[in-house]
Amino acid sequence: MGRYIARRLLLTIPVLLGSTFLIFAMVYALPGDPIAALAGDRPLAPGVVAELKDRYNLNDPLLVQYGKYLGALLQGDLGTDFAGRSVSETVAERLPVTVKLALVAVGFEALIGLIAGVLAGIRKDSFFDNLVLVTTIAVVSVPVFVLGFVAQITLALRLNLFPISGIGEGLYSYLLPGFVLGSLSLAVVARLTRTSLVENLRNDYVRTARAKGLPPRTVLAKHALRNSLIPVVTFLGADLGALLSGAIVTEGIFNIPGLGRTVFQAVQSGEGAVVVGVVTLFIFFYIVFNLVIDIAYAALDPRIRYE
Amino acid sequence: MSSPPNVSSGQGQDGSLLRSSDAPDPTQSRLPVTTDDTSTGGDRQASLWSDAWRQLRRNPIFIVASMLLLVLAVMAAFPQLFTNTDPRSCDLANSRGGPGTNGAWFGYDLQGCDYYANVIYGARVSMTIGVFVVGSSLFIGVVLGALAGFYGGWFDSLMSRITDIFFGLPLILGAILLLNAFTGERGTFQVGLALIAFGWMTILRLLRSSVISVKAADYVQAARALGANDWRIITTHILPNAIAPVLVYATILIGGVIAAEATLSFLGIGLQLPAISWGLQINGARNFVRTSPYLLLIPSAFLSATVLCFIMLGDALRDALDPKLR
Fold first, then answer.
1. Which residues 78-107 of A have a C-beta within 8 angstroms of B?
2. Which of A82, A103, B80, B176 has an alpha carbon 20 to 30 Å from B141's alpha carbon atom?
3. Reduced to 3 states, what is the DSSP secondary structure of residue B78?
4. Is the pTM of this model over 0.80?
5. Which of A21, A124, A125, A140 to mutate to test binding with chain B, by most B CBs within 10 Å of its CB?
């Protein structure tokens, strides 16, 4: 187990290097001169420009800039934006907001998605089953920004059930954006749970469990469900990483000051350090979640052992 | 790998539709593998594809979805057939006139342009981008995936690492970055390129894993023993039997790409005015949702319906191509 984790962590190094370089190259190619933008209408003195360009390594070629960035990164320094604020500070301030949003979304996915999927799975072909199928396929085909908008207009603006935007009302204001963010995956979780439960309920071991007289509840909870959850857990884990970037759209619509909005604004204003820092963090989360999921397999499925 | 299920066993007992797992998962792609090769020509052609086609023809969901997509395709190619009004001839006097004003079915937008004509012309961008992006991704993914799966070795490892790197960067985020790095005009082509750059990986992985599991099949060994070269083995023996899960995924991906284009245009970094796109129309509607909700709802409905059609088509294809579900 320890060796497996070590090997996996080693494998993430080239991936992280490659992804950060990819982002770095794209940010490097962003048009516009950030130093000139800093000054506004009155151009800066040439000496100041030279000093600033030097401080942000803007005169170096791409590879040298990247090397210097990595060097700083290894010492835990994410750099500073052009306003002089350290990126780590921005991240520390915005990250909890996005994490809360993502957790609310995953909470919805796990709770509603699993319940709907299980109920549809044990009553295959029932009315409820068909209802779940139709609803999920409808939800999947509506793009998130459309759903967010419509939810904002109807539930928040017209019916006044939720705050329209911002996070002024604590956890309550995360509910609607969290639901919108998680809606697509919620539908996928429901269908995945249903399909995998239906498949497992047909298996011999379930018949055996029933035949030896176990109560239906135990058969479902201890035998069928445990095996059915493996693909669902995989999906939820991979999804946590995807949610962070999905937050770009949702945070924009609901005006939530999280990392998604930060990175979007940073891309548009050419704040390279912020973009690279935040996106690297996203990728790191994505890789870590995937590793955690792979380890969770072993807990769910006793046949899987990592040597 | 489990033994490949045989296709020729009973077809279509289960008349019900949409009964399959969602979101194709590259780690557990099921492989429909047929043991009788079409080219050998038996008494009855029972290849995977003819079986699938027979089942598809009887599937109402497939028929409805493909009919709707046909209409959308005609709409994209010849919008003049649906409307005589020029979407760009606008009269400010009509600004935000609701549906029914002056006989305009969907009313007018902020600039006083006929909204029905605009929504009809919006189909072109969506369909073009969907087909362009998925076609190119298929080309990249199938060529590289087949080579990686068939030859393995260092090329395979290299491809795995590269896909890992691109997977780390989510589609929308990567496309936002790339589109901002493009200087100059951002048109359909640029948006398409950005979506290809971060959308091709899953196809490669799916094809690679299905090529690997087909590669060991007896008929491939037989073809090799008969002296077929690699090219012939890959194109006539392996690909036809390995491509089914990829085609299912690609069909659904068209819907995903269309939604992604609309999202990018909505965020203001995809297409730009005066281009006509559903995403741009939804973006333009955002300030008038209270007073003129139809400006938001109509393009949203068209966009969602298009995505829905591709998802249903993909679902129907999966049901037809996956013998395990029969």
1. none
2. B176
3. coil
4. no
5. A140
Contacts with B168 from chain A: Cβ below 8 Å:
15-16, 19, 282-283, 286-287
Residue-by-residue DSSP string for A48-96: HHHHHHHHTTTTS-HHHHHHHHHHHHHTT---B-TTS-BHHHHHHHHHH
Name B254's Cβ contacts closer than 8 Å, sequence gap at least 6. Answer: B130, B131, B134, B310
Task: Convert the pLDDT of each residue in B102-141 to its tens digit.
Answer: 666 677 776 667 777 788 888 888 888 889 999 999 999 8
What b/e sequence results for B261-277 when a residue is b if at least 16 CB atoms lie within 10 Å of its CB, and e otherwise? bbbbbbbebbbeeebbb
Q: Annotate A183-221 with DSSP letters as a single string.
A: HHHHHHHHHHHHHHHHHHHTSHHHHHHHHTT--HHHIII
Residue range B190-232, pLDDT digits in tens: 888 888 988 888 888 888 888 888 888 888 888 888 888 888 8
Residue in A26, A141, A242 nearest the CB of B181: A26
List the structure tokens of A221: 């909870």
pLDDT in tens, B151-166: 888 888 888 888 888 8
Chain A positions touching B157 (Cβ under 8 A) are none
Domains belonging to chain A, first-starting first, are 92-256 (1.10.3720.10)
* Domains of chain B, earliest start first: 112-326 (1.10.3720.10)
Straight-line distance from the first to the last Cα atom of chain A, in angstroms, rounded to the nearest whole number: 5
> Looking at beta carbons, which residues of chain A come within 8 Å of B68?
none
| Alpha carbon distance A208, A205 (integer Å) | 5
Q: ipTM of the assembly?
A: 0.77
Cβ atoms of B264 and B171 closer than 8 Å = no
Determine contact: A27 vs chain B, CB below 8 A.
yes
Beta carbons within 8 Å of A302's beta carbon, 6+ residues apart: none
Per the document, the length of chain B is 326
Structure tokens at A132: 């779940």
Largest CA distance in chain B: 77
Amino acid at residue number A186: L
Q: What is the DSSP letter of A109?
A: I
Q: What is the pLDDT of residues B301-319, one digit of tens each?
A: 888 888 888 888 888 888 7
What is residue B76's three-state secondary structure?
A: helix
Using the Cβ of B311 and the Cβ atoms of chain A, whether some distance falls under 8 Å is answered with: yes
**Per-residue pLDDT tens digits for A57-83:** 666 777 777 777 777 777 767 677 766
pLDDT of residue B22: 41
Least confident of A128-142, B47-61, B99-113: B99-113
